[in-house]
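Case study 2.
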Amino acid sequence: MPSSEKQGSGMPFASFRRSILHIKGDQVHSVESSQESNSLDPEMELFQKQVFSRFHELSMANADEFLSISWIQKLLDAFTSCQEDFRVILSNNKAHLSNPTLEKLLSEFFDKAIKALDICNATREGIEKIRQWQKNLDIVVCALDCRHRMISEGQFRRARKALMDLALLMLEEKESGSVFSHRNRSFGRVKNKEHQRRQSAGHSRSLSWSVPNSWSASKQLQSIANNLVPPRGNEIAATNGLAVIVFTMSFVLMFVLWILVAALPCQDRGHQIQFAIPRQFSWGTSFFLLHSRIIDEFKKQERRDSNGLLKEIYQMEKCIHHMTDLVDSAQFPLTEEQKEEVRYGVQKLSSVCEVCKTGLDPLDRQVREVFRKIMCCRNEGLEFLGRVN
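Prediction:
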């Protein structure tokens, strides 16, 4: 599908990491929180509680799980559950959709949904990059696996080449910080080796969706975050409480996309994203805690200059640095101490590769499903609006 948004200027990634969000604190709308609570029927109140529960659980993840592939999968599960609940609420309240205020709010939400589809595509491109890195690491594991044979200098040279190729790929990813020099491949498959070669060189052509070189995930996120303001009391009353539900789902959409862009390699992550966490809502505390933990991870990333907050990326980079030092310092014949270091390094590297092998494909399918859920909810919502007009 075509890129949905023409974007403005960007900022370097360092600015993004130093100040990813601007938290405005409790806004003037907090005085209306009691009105919001009193205006919601039981179905809508349950939706708010479910949002709190799902994201509170995510915020309580231990350090080993937080921002891992399995945690991102749980994040997407929480999002799709909220999306389905939101769709059901709209379906059950068709009679109120003719309200001009609600129609405006829904139209804005569906515009944000279109922009979200681009980020889903870009996220899948990031997953594909990690797959390519993992393939290089598989070569290193295969070359240096000394469980059943002695390791020769030739095998060390093979491992060194794979590590150098991988370091180059990851360096290009970092240096592309503002703008990538390629087009995303969307939901298509790589058809042949020539296409794969062009993709690895950074010049792949999309099979169904492409963006100009100036496309930016961070600018797209900012356009989704813009005008994301809690509804006022008169809007809540005029829409029978549905304005609160639309705002909640809009915030959930934006926040989940922000985490995906932060965690995975993504075209132009380098821009300061600004939005306020609405702490006057019951679910605001969960998002505030999540935001605080992710900001802490950004500070750590700034020190280690990582390609993404995903835990498996950090583990990859750590293993790569260790194995590169080991390969570069090796002298033949290897001492028993060096052999043990190789065995330990290969074991750690193999564990990371295995997690990626088993986790990336399900994650990829899940992002596809999120894409479809967003699109179906938008289409169904527009159909509802069309019937009442």
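Confidence is low (pLDDT under 50) at residues 1-39, 177-208.
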